[in-house]
């Protein structure tokens, strides 16, 4: 009953993720408890032995809990099943049936909860994922716009705050995508295309963030040494990226989605006059940002998945 309550979450993907984490923690916790009861507990006669038996498992569970939030719940299950089996009484535990019954109950609860949700409560997060991706792209566009407005300033604190907020929105989209990928039936064609397109948009959003930060850092690092036509062209690229990202986000959030890939932005300085040799790092950073924005895929009912055109930006 407790397992059914724990894994009963609003969506199929979230429930599947919670059930997998519960099993991933309960199975090794029960196995460790079983090993300790059979081979270690009969030889214990003082508190030192008890500590040597339990502290390594506690430390291992704490190490898992200190890692990613996606797997932190497994550490709670590992520690709880191990502790309930060995530390439930004030004396040594010799009954193996409790460990067996608890593990069978967890497996049965996961199976019942999964069957009920797949049969009567099929709630997916595909539409929620699209809305979150659109919100992410708007946040990136706002971040790029703010970077363009603050490029002449040396105050890094507000820029860092906006940067962290944008990365938090991107991390939320990544967590939602991980749940959508676990929804039953995701191997089917429509769900596979949704997952692949979402992965592409998420990857491109990350690359656009890195390219925008690289462009801003390049501009600020040698402020005053760039030629005015190149600076104007860079600001124009920023503005075009802002417009294209917002347009793509609006089309992605529509129902049904009909987001067309952004058109390739031409660097204005090339059309005006040849860039000076000293301006080439800034020109390269601006063109890299333009390529990442153009790498967003077509997203519509009939569109095929396009591979992202991206290159990693070194930190």
From TrEMBL:
<feature type="transmembrane region" description="Helical">
    <location>
        <begin position="48"/>
        <end position="65"/>
    </location>
</feature>
<keyword id="KW-0812">Transmembrane</keyword>
<keyword id="KW-1133">Transmembrane helix</keyword>
<feature type="transmembrane region" description="Helical">
    <location>
        <begin position="103"/>
        <end position="121"/>
    </location>
</feature>
<feature type="domain" description="Integral membrane bound transporter">
    <location>
        <begin position="1"/>
        <end position="116"/>
    </location>
</feature>
<protein>
    <submittedName>
        <fullName>FUSC family protein</fullName>
    </submittedName>
</protein>
<comment type="similarity">
    <text>Belongs to the YccS/YhfK family.</text>
</comment>
<feature type="transmembrane region" description="Helical">
    <location>
        <begin position="23"/>
        <end position="41"/>
    </location>
</feature>
<keyword id="KW-0472">Membrane</keyword>
<dbReference type="InterPro" id="IPR049453">
    <property type="entry name" value="Memb_transporter_dom"/>
</dbReference>
<keyword id="KW-1003">Cell membrane</keyword>
<dbReference type="Pfam" id="PF13515">
    <property type="entry name" value="FUSC_2"/>
</dbReference>
């Amino acid at each position: 009953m407790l397992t059914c309550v724990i894994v009963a979450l609003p969506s199929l993907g979230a429930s599947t993720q919670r059930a997998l984490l519960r099993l991933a923690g309960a199975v090794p916790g029960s196995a460790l408890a079983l090993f300790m009861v059979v081979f270690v507990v009969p030889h214990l006669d003082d508190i030192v032995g008890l500590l040597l038996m339990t502290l390594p498992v506690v430390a291992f569970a704490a190490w898992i809990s200190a890692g990613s939030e996606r797997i932190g719940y497994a550490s709670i299950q590992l520690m709880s099943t191990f502790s309930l089996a060995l530390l439930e009484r004030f004396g040594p535990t010799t009954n193996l049936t409790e460990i067996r019954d608890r593990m069978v109950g967890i497996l049965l609860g996961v199976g019942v909860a999964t069957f009920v949700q797949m049969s009567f409560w099929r709630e997916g997060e595909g539409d929620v994922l699209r809305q979150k991706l659109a919100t992410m792209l708007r946040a990136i566009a706002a971040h790029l716009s703010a970077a363009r407005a603050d490029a002449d300033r040396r105050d890094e604190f507000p820029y860092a705050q906006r940067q962290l907020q944008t990365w938090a929105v991107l991390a939320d989209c990544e967590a939602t995508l991980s749940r959508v990928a676990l929804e039953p039936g995701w191997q089917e064609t429509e769900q596979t295309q949704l997952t692949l397109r979402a992965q592409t948009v998420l990857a491109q959003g990350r690359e656009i963030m890195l390219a925008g930060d690289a462009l801003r850092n390049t501009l600020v690092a040698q402020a005053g040494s760039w030629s005015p036509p190149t600076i104007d062209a860079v600001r124009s690229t920023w503005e075009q990226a802002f417009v294209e990202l917002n347009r793509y986000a609006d089309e992605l959030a529509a129902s049904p989605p009909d987001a067309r890939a952004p058109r390739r932005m031409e660097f204005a300085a090339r059309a005006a006059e040849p860039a000076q040799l000293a301006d080439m790092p800034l020109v390269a950073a601006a063109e890299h940002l333009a390529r990442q924005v153009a790498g967003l895929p077509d997203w519509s009912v009939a569109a095929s998945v396009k591979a992202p055109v991206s290159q990693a930006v070194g930190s």
